From TrEMBL, chain A:
Organism of origin: Haloarcula taiwanensis
Record-given protein name: 3-ketoacyl-CoA thiolase
Classification via Pfam families: Thiolase_C_1, Thiolase_N
Keyword entries, A-Z: Isoprene biosynthesis
Thiolase N-terminal domain segment(s): 6-222
UniProtKB/TrEMBL annotation, chain B:
Organism lineage string: Archaea, Methanobacteriati, Methanobacteriota, Stenosarchaea group, Halobacteria
Domain ChsH2 C-terminal OB-fold: 51-108
Organism per entry: Haloarcula taiwanensis
Record InterPro entries: ChsH2_C (IPR002878), NA-bd_OB-fold (IPR012340), Thioester_dehydratase-like (IPR052513)
Protein name according to UniProt: Nucleic acid-binding protein
Source species, domain of life: Archaea
Pfam families per the UniProt record, alphabetical: OB_ChsH2_C
Coiled coil residues, start to end: none
Amino acid sequence: MSDPRIAGASVTQFGKHPERTGRDLFAEAGLEALSQAGIDPEDAEALYYGNFMGELAEHQGHQGPLMAEAIGLDVPATRVEAACASAGTAVREAVKTIRNGEAEVVVVGGAERMTNIGTAAATDALAIAADDLYEVRAGMTFPGAYALMARSYFDQYGGSHEDLAHVAVKNHEHALVNEHAQIQQEITIEDALEAPTIADPLGLYDSCPITDGAAAAVLTTEAYAEEHNLDAPVAITGTGQGGDNLALQDRPHLAQTPAADKAAEEAYGDAGVGPDDVDFAEVHDCFTIAEVFAIESLGFYERGEGIAAARNGETTRDGDRPINLSGGLKAKGHPVGATGVAQLATVAWLLDGSHPRADAVPDSTVGVAHNAGGTVASTTVHVMEVQE
Amino acid sequence: MTESAQDGEYDAWLDSIESGDGYYLECSNGHGWLPPRRVCPRCHDQELSAVDLPESGEIASHTTITVPTPQFEDDAPYVTAIADFGPVSVTGLVRGVDPDDVAIGDVVGIDVGERVTTGERAVVFRPR
């Protein structure tokens, strides 16, 4: 069994691309990833592709073969859908395909087009990741769902909107040098606290933007990388996935994310590492409170203690364990189906030193990507390590 | 105008709430769920029976939503909450109280109301 090496990765500029189709966005990312990898496209044997709202946003289903065609591949192509964890789940399928010896070169990616349908329709499209009968019909939106979780967290463990504002301020600051980021704008605690409310206690700056974008990566075996003299020092050494009841109302806790606990435990066990070995992480901060859940589920903090991490400077770029050096979904943007692979690319670039924030983690060897779908009813965690 | 499609047991469940005979499904190990269910996801038991829903529940969490989906455009701002009713929890709209006065632990009753925007039915909680 070979841990897949990341031979190439690419993300498009995240933001509004009103004139560009999903297939065009993915073509840009996929072709660049293949070019960076230096791999003959004829050697690619499979594509796993994440996408969530293609039917609603572009009236386009069956996107697997469409996207293979868009990057010039004639391979079995599978679209993977797990809401906002679609691309993380696609990564997991790619890892398994390489590990079980079915393929030596696999392309994994994702894309989402969201801004063309406007805020109201995008809010509606995102909402269908919740339980239609029992949540959507009771007015649930995704900011609303995370607001319910945030209020429950505050009630159970303490914490405040001001603590969450520190998460937003941190991630905006991290994104300032990320040329792919949708928002490169510094904000203050006051900006975050005074922003319009979306679903109390969450405001505009607690929420990630609606985003168009794509990401792609080329995974290969260690043997193929050596044989073809590829520069691929980063391997995916651990993969994990967890699930939970779809509806919040059916869960024992509103202030914990056990699907992420399970994914992290599996990924750490797979890689043979623990939370203390991790130098940094890219986590799914679709809302500021989501970052708090993520860093607790990843074992960096006990329950109830993650809320103070950003305020205490522990997860900032000069802290002990930086979180979301890319700017996270919060500032980088969240093209839903692409996010998990964009996280994978970011972690690889931070580990190989090519990311603009790599100076924050100069000697790092272990990075983690945490990608959550819905209200964390689906979660993937991937451990990446620099190989000698 | 055609009659809107029914959603099976969900609509039957709303009917039961509306008529004051609300119920939930309970497996033989006492785990509670809302319909439709064929199996208890916790213990895999398939012997589910209808049990009377308690008349009052307690708000477990709540939020006032100001940016809604198009189906709730004219309802906004509105309060969505999860309320615990014994072995089950239910998500619904809180009405009959100022949104600023809703708090975790508030005791509510369950009913069915109409959404302002579409006129469609929705679960509604009111203070008791």
